[in-house]
Amino acid sequence: MTVASSSPPSRVPLRGVEGTETKPKVGKAREHVGRGDGALAALFIAPAMLGFLVFLLWPTLRGIWLSFTRFNLLTPAEWVGLDNYVRMVNDPIFWDSLTVTVEYVVINIGVQTVVALAIAVLLQRLTQSAVLRGLVLTPYLMSNVVAGLVWLWILDTQLGIGNEIITALGADRIPFLADETWAIPTIALINVWRHVGYTALLLFAGLQAIPSYLYEAAKVDGASEWRMFWRITMPLLRPVLAVVLIMTVIGSFQVFDTVAVTTAGGPANATNVLQYYIYGSAFGRFQFGYASAMSVALLVVLSAITVLQYRLTRAGQTDLG
Amino acid sequence: MAAVTTTTGVRPVRRRFSLGRASAWAMLGLILLITLLPFYWIVRTSLSTNSGLSADPTNPLPTGLTGSGFERALGLQSAKEAIAQGGAGGGLDFWRYLLNSVFVSTLITGCQMFFSAMAAYAFARLRWRGRDKVFGLFLAGLMVPTIFTLLPNFVLIKQLHLVDTLLGIALPTLFMTPFAVFFLRQFFMNIPMEIEEAALLDGAGKIKIFFRVVLPMASTPIITLSVLTYITSWNDYFWPLMVSYSDSSRVLTVALAIFRAQTPATGVDWSGLTAATLIAALPMLVLFACFARRIVSSISFTGIK
User: Fold this and answer.
1) Residue B182's closest chain A neighbor by CA?
2) Are residues B181 and A208, on separate chains, in Cβ contact within 8 Å?
3) Full-model pTM
4) Do the domain assignments include residue A227?
5) Which residues form the domain of A270?
6) Which has fewest Cβ within 10 Å: A128, A272, B73, B138?
7) Of A143, A281, A287, which to mutate for an interface test with B (greatest number of B Cβ within 10 Å)?
8) How far is A145 from chain B (nearest CA, A)?
9) Which of residues 129-158 of A touch B (CB under 8 A)?
10) Could you tell me if residue B186 is left (phi over 0), alpha (psi between -120 and 50 degrees) or otherwise beta?
11) Does residue A163 form part of some domain?
C-alpha cells in the first residue's frame, strides 16, 4: 500500500526524462538476448519437457483412455466403451465411498479453515514471532503415515492417553477409529492436526497484506477486536481465503494415506474413501479400467468444485485497492 | 513504525482489552499444546517397554526406560528377543529404509530442481518461438491432481520394468513439476536484465550466465523450494506403495505401514512402532530446524503465488 502511494510521483520524472532513454535500451537488450536462443532453449527445456510429456500429459490422456477399457495389467487393454461408467453409476459401493469422501471433506475443511483462520488472526494480532509460526508448522513436516500412527496410538481404545483422559473425566472409552460413526470424523481431525499449521501460515501471509493503519484507525474509533475481524480482516482476506479453500478442498478429496494406515477402509466400509476404493479396485482386484473410470469421475468433481468455488467466492477480485 | 508512534494514544484501549488479550494468548497456547504434545508422547512411548506401557498407560515419563524399541526398529534384535519384548520379529530394518528414503528424496530434489531451473530460465529469459504457448501448457499441468496420474504412471513404470526399483519411485517427479518451473520462473524474471547484459558484454555465454549469475542470485528461493521438495518426497506414501514390493526399494513411509500391519498376537508393538516413527520423522525435523526461518517466511510466496 505504502509502495503504491509513493510510486506515482517517482514515476512521472522517470517517464519524462529517463524513460525515453531507458526504453530503447530495454528493447535493444531484448533483441540482443533474442539472437540465436532457439537451440539453447531447446537444450534447456528438453529434460523438463520429457518429464512433462511422459509423466504428466501422457498419463493424463492414458488415464482417460483406460477408463473406456477393460484392463488387468497382464493382457492388453480391451475397449469396452462406456461399460465402466455404467457399472460405476450402478455401483452402490462407489456412491457410498463418494458420500464418505464428501463427509470427510466437509468435516476436514470446515474445522481446518476455522482453526487455521483463528491461528492466523491470533498470530497477526498478538505477535510477529517467527518461532511460533515455525512451531505451528511442525506437524506438517510429518508424513500422513506418521501423523496417522501417532494418533492411532494416542486414541487407542485400551492404552491410548486420549482415552485415559476421557475416562479420567468420567466418560466412557471411545473406540475412535474402530467405530463406524467416529472413524471418519477422527481421520478428518487427524489430518486437520497435520495440515492446519500450513493453512494458517498461508492465511497469515494474506493478513500481512492488510495495511496496519486500518486497524490503528479502527482502534482510535473504539472498535472491538471482534468488530475489526468482521469489518476489516474478513472482507480483505476473502480473495486469499478463496484461493486457499480451493487448494485445500482439492487436497482433501485425495485423502488416502491416513485411511490406509489407521482403518484400512473399515469398519464395514465406513472409511472407504474414494481414493481407497480406487486403489483397491486397481491393486486388489486388478480392475484398472474401472479404477480409471472412478479417477476420471473424481477429476470431473474436482474441476467442477474449482470452477464453482471460484465463481461463488469471486476469487479473482480483491477489495484491497 | 506506525505502532510505535501511536502507542500512547492506544494505551487505554489496550488496557480495556487486556482480558481479551489474555484469553487470546491462552487460546494460542492451547493450540500449540495440541500441536506439540503428540511429539512428546511419541518420544515417551518409544523409550518405554511394551509391558510398562500396558501396566502404566498414563505415566508422563517413559515406563521402564529402554532403547529396545529402537533396537527392534533398526533390526538389531534377534526375532526371538523381539517377540519376547512384544515385537513382531518381522525383521524390518529401518537403517535400510532410511538409506532408501535418503537416496530417493535426494535424487528427486537434486534433479527436479536442476531441470526445473533450466526450464524456468528458458521460459523467463530465452527468446524462442512458441515460448508462451508451451508455458501455458505447463501451467495447465498444475490443474491435473497428482493422484490422477498415479495409476497410468504405474502402468508405464511397469512397462519400463522399473517396478520395485528406487529409480521407478523417483522417475515421475525427477524431471519437473509444473509448480517448481512456475515458481522459479517468477524469481528469474525479477533478476535485473542489466546484470545479465553486463555479463554478456564481458563475453560470457548464456550457459555460463545461467550457472554463474542466475543460479547464484536465485539461491535463496532454490534452497527453500529444495527443502520443501525434499520434505514432500520424503513423506510421499501412495506412489511408493504402488511401486515398491520388497526391501530393495522400500522407503520409510511404506515400511512404517508394514510395521503397523505386522501386529503380533500380544497386541501392537507400540514401543517399536513409535521408535520407527521417530526414525522416519526426525530427519525432517532436523532439516526444518536448519531452514525454519527461511521456509516460514517464504510460505506466503509459495502458497499464494
Assistant:
1) A48
2) no
3) 0.85
4) yes
5) 87-313
6) A128
7) A143
8) 6
9) 130, 132-139, 141-146, 149-154, 156, 158
10) alpha
11) yes
Residues in contact with A19: Cβ distance below 8 Å, sequence separation at least 6, in sequence order: none
CA closest to B120 among chain A residues: A45
Residue A248 lies in a domain: yes
**What domains can you pick out in chain B, each with its CATH number?**
15-92+262-282 (no CATH), 97-251 (1.10.3720.10)
Q: Among A58, A136, A240, whose Cβ lies nearest the Cβ of B35?
A: A136
Cell of A267: 469398519
Check if B255 contacts A (Cβ < 8 Å): no
Q: How many domains does chain A have?
A: 1
Which phi and psi angles does B118 have, rounded to 5°? -60, -50
DSSP secondary structure, B13-55, as one string:
HHHHTHHHHHHHHHHHHHHHHHHHHHHHHHHHHHTS-HHHHHH
> What is the least distance, in Å, from the CA of B32 to any CA of chain A?
7
Note down pLDDT in tens along chain A; length 321 residues: 223 333 333 333 333 333 333 344 444 444 444 456 888 999 999 999 999 999 999 999 999 999 999 998 888 888 998 999 999 999 999 999 999 999 999 999 999 999 999 999 999 888 878 889 899 999 999 999 999 999 999 998 888 888 888 888 888 888 888 888 899 999 999 999 999 999 999 899 889 888 989 999 998 998 888 899 999 999 999 888 888 888 899 999 999 999 999 998 878 889 999 999 999 999 999 999 999 999 999 999 988 988 888 777 765 565 554
Residue A223 belongs to domain with CATH number: 1.10.3720.10
Locate A166 and state its grid cell.
Answer: 476421557
